[in-house]
Amino acid sequence: MLPIIAWRNIWRSRTRSLVVIGSIIIGVWALVFLLGFFRGQVDNYITNIIQNETSHVQFHDSLFKEDFDVRLFIPEGEYILADVVSTTEVKTGSSRILVNGMLSSSNAAQGVLAKGVHPDQEQVTTGLYDKVIEGEVFDTSKRNQIMISERIADKLKVKMRSKVVLTFQNAQGDISAAAFRVSGIYKTHNRMNDELYVFAYIEDLRRLTMLPGGAVHELALILNHFDSTDTYASRLGAKYKPYKVETYKQISPDLELFNSQIRVNMIIMTTIFMLALIFGIINTMLMAVLERMKELGMLMAIGMNKLRVFFMVVYETIFVSLIGAPLGMGLGYLTLQYLNYQGIDLSAWSKALEEFGMSDIVRPTLDSETYWLIGSAVVITAVLASIYPALKAIRLKPVEALRKI
Amino acid sequence: MKDHVVIRVVNLEKTYEETAVPVHALQGVDMEIVKGEFTAIVGPSGSGKTTLLNIIGGLDRPSAGRVEIDGRDISTLSDNQLIDFRKKHIGFVFQSYNLIPVLTAKENVEFVMLLQKQSKERRDKRTAELMEAVGLADRMHNRPSELSGGQQQRVAVARALAPKPDFILADEPTANLDSKSTSNLLDMMARLNKEEDITFVFSTHDQRVIDRARRVITLEDGKVLSDQQHE
Fold first, then answer.
1. How far apart are CA B54 and CA B68, in angstroms?
2. CB B115 to CB A12 under 8 A?
3. How much is the pLDDT for B1?
4. A338-386: per-residue pLDDT in tens?
């Protein structure tokens, strides 16, 4: 009977209840949207970093990343790659020779990190071809072709087919230089990377740096299951002990920082929302209790004990939140589904986003766990919000309450 | 056989200290009400009628003296014990009906039985009997807002009777009713009193009620001025 009375009580003041339910719906919808948007931004950032820079797992010589010394290579790198790519955990991988050097034209010079890659491997690992905005990646049948970014091209004042010279240290420790022809110009969403990386055919760089056959500096792996990155990386680390096997989080610690910062933002936003909700519900339920003082007094007079009166008020609040929260979440879910499919175009801020390595299309998303958390938080908040009005109700003295008009 | 005393009021005093000048609402009231009485407590406004009824009903506590219901001193009970006691022993009828607006007439009547965790069969049977007795068998599924004042008060009486209490306390039950509804209600209560030996105690200053009461206790300034049996 108590839940029935509570349910019907909600609809006694239909307008007021609909306003509270409406505010919960809008609030939850806004919260779902904002959390989804933030999560979408984080995913966008992480995806861009993984896709363009780190992959899921990378191998290096244990000291290589300290100063990118060309002599610190993995001698059997190509064989290790073939070995790990054949396992079920790995989707694809790419082997690279990395050479720090100076790229110069007749007009200017720029410090770069030249990545010697197999274009086909690199395409499936980092989508190399998709980044090309002019020309092509490079023709492996031709010698010394290079793909540079639009930014480097602008800085060096070179165009397609221009000649540039890469000066670097070879595996013998000697300074060497080689002329390359620009075969393609690329552009990514990461300004810093665009100012650093140039791409050449791996065999050209191997020959020029005098590295032995099969030797590479870096192996980058894309796994089939993103979530298994940590466990798989530690297994690989144990298997290929002398080499350093790192996950994208270890390679790019800012990812975790960004992720945790966004998580903190999400918690703050959820807390602010819940605080607003708590006061909104207290206000409404208090009004509902004060309006019914005489009736509550009567209920206690005829034998309804305080615990039942308390729970009647709590039930009313829970019912209001149980109507509002799922509707708000449903609306939020549909909004996120649509926006995830459509994408939110932030191209008006693309320059600022490039500074952070983000693309200008954000696809909001939210995991089911967060939906559950929001739903539970709303119900818990509603229960907390109902305590004060419910206490107010049970503190009534029937004899005084019955005198109220 | 000696009459069974349902309510015994002994030297009851109630002083309201909250006001600037203390108000002595009851000053040494003594009375006994036996089973089956149809008693009206009358007196002018401020004479202490409602205060006396509230204390007898366990809704308020005396400043001194005691109230015994069926021999049990209720002034020693805690708030929660009092609620439980009221649920089992006392039926209330209020001046402004005070039905639960979101429940139907039937649900209002069976409400206290639900609080007492009586079975559905017993509740249904008792509710049907009572709705029949108060002449509202055809209005079982109407909400209070769909009933007239007189009908609501009859439902309130049925609700008060539902748990088979020791007695019914009715505070100015006819104050908001027209003369026809008052007459119907009094007829019904008199019949229940006579046929089912239910004890009724009213506070009232309605002459129509006073005329129907078999015992009239008059209060003035918190004291019993007279206590008369009517035939």
1. 14
2. no
3. 46
4. 999 999 988 888 777 777 767 788 899 999 999 999 999 999 999 999 9
Is A9 in CB contact (< 8 Å) with chain B? yes
Q: Which two tokens stand for residue B76?
A: 């020693």
Q: What is the rounded distance in angstroms from the CA atom of residue A302 to the CA atom of residue B103? A: 15
The answer for B 115-144 residues in CB contact with A (under 8 A) is 115-116
Secondary structure class of B98 (helix, strand, coil):
coil
- Please compute the mean of the pLDDT values over residues A306-321 and round it to a whole number: 92
Contact assignment for A306 to B59 by CB distance below 8 Å: no
Residue B148 lies in a domain: no
Whether ipTM tops 0.95, in short, is: no
* Range B190-198 contact pairs with CB under 8 angstroms and sequence separation of 24 or more: B190/B38, B192/B133, B192/B157, B192/B161, B193/B36, B193/B38, B197/B35, B197/B36, B198/B36, B198/B161, B198/B167, B198/B168
- pLDDT tens digits for B178-221? 888 888 888 888 888 888 888 999 998 888 889 889 999 999 99
Q: How many CB atoms lie within 10 A of CB A86?
A: 8
Vertex A330 angle, CA A327 and A332, to 5°: 110
Structure-token match 């979408």, residue found: A40
Please state, in angstroms and as integers, the Cα–Cα distance from residue B23 to each residue in A183, A399, B10, B48, following that order: 104, 17, 20, 11
Residue-range definition of the domain harbouring residue B12:
5-98+159-229
With helix as H, strand as E and coil as C, how does A330-357 read?
Answer: HHHHHHHHHHHHHCEECHHHHHHHHHCC
CA A174 to chain centre: 43
Chain B contacts of A303, Cβ < 8 Å?
A: 83-84, 86-88, 112, 115-116, 163
Q: Which positions in chain B touch A402 (Cβ < 8 Å)?
A: 59, 94, 98
Does a structural domain hold residue B46?
yes
Q: Which of B82, B86, B102 to mutate to test the interface with A (most CBs of A within 10 A)?
A: B102
Chain A residues lying within 8 Å of B84, measured CB to CB: 303, 305
Q: Is A344 in CB contact (< 8 Å) with chain B?
A: no
Q: What is the CATH number of the domain that holds B80?
A: 3.40.50.300
A305 touches B: beta carbon within 8 Å = yes
Structural domains of chain B, count:
1
